[in-house]
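Treating backbone geometry as a discrete language has practical consequences that deserve illustration. No coordinates are needed to read the tokens, only the vocabulary itself. For completeness, the protein is quoted in full, as a sequence line and a line of structure tokens:
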Amino acid sequence: MIRTTTRRARWLLAAAALLLVAAVVVIVVVTRGDDRPEGPAATPTATSTTPTSAPESSAPSSTAPSSAAPSSTSTPAPTVPPAVPAGLLGVDVETIPTDQPVVALTFDAGASSAGLPSILATLAEEDVEATFFLTGDWAAANPDGVAAIRAGGHRVGNHSMTHPHLPALSDAALRDEVVGAQEAIRAAGADPRPLFRFPFGDRDDRTIAAVNDLGYVAVRWTVDTLGWQGTAGGRSAQSVADRVLAALQPGEIVLMHVGSNPDDGTTFDADALPQMIDRIRAAGYGFVTLDALLGS
């Protein structure tokens, strides 16, 4: 009996020991499981500090606040004058340098716009493109006229802001005239660069150099129709056309005016334009804008 009891006690002690060991193992396993991260986001890896899958451009931008680099729209780029072709520097061009039978019709606009509707209608009907030299004052007062000129596919040039005698002005005042007109014309919807015509054709070496420095080619004319003189000057639509045909040559630049004579209200340049175009074509000539000076 005593042996049986002793043997049973040993078995109970062994079982208790086994239960104790099992309990310790369970506690250790559970504790270790609680310490482990629950998902891949918390797993520290080498790629968590070096995002090889991110775009290369993202790394530099993260080192500086976005406000440190202003956008292109917040600070307008400085306006750089276009380069004047070397062969056109220091001269007031009187003809397009070509042996081709072409004529450039040009119109100055600095006073009224009385002849403009008729001129644009004739050019459209005859499918002819011309060049219009605008003063800044005229462009500001006639934005619809500027729009109509551009809608007709015509070229625009700079004729100063207020149409003064430029050689009488200081360098600063001359610059204001040219740049002021440029900005007024651009505000009206056209860009006059790089063509410039001196008011009254009045220029000298200093003023030609000044407009060249501002990125403009100085353009004079081959023949002035003198239509602007009106009846008091003995002019007529016929005399206007006759003067142009008498001076006909390759590269001829014809000077006309958009406005009317202030004394009699005549618009001889506009009136003469249809027959002028017909007679020039009959002589075997075509028409170009002054972009032909620039090779375009």
Notes: The mean pLDDT is 82. The longest strand covers residues 102-109.
